[in-house]
Design goal:
alpha+beta; two-stranded antiparallel sheet
Length: 74
């Protein structure tokens, strides 16, 4: 990803109040992003949905997606 693309995405996430943005106290060139309450809630919802979708995948589909190794019995 190019830096301008990242900047646009970060601005959108801050505007939606999904993340907070602050400068590092140790190095002012560094920007620290943290999930806000809304962002954390959304991340948990997404994680739950991903788990639901993954549970419906056949073993071969999970293997194709690299979710399990070829020698796995899962």
């Amino acid at each position: 990803m190019r830096l301008p693309t990242v900047s646009v995405v970060v601005k959108a996430l801050v505007r939606k109040r999904w993340v907070t943005k602050r400068r590092s106290v140790k190095d002012d060139r560094v920007v620290v992003l943290s999930l806000c309450r809304w962002g954390d809630t959304l991340a948990l919802k997404i994680e739950k949905r991903v788990q639901q979708v993954n549970a419906t995948l056949a073993k071969q589909d999970r293997r194709t997606l690299g979710m399990i190794s070829k020698d796995s019995r899962a």
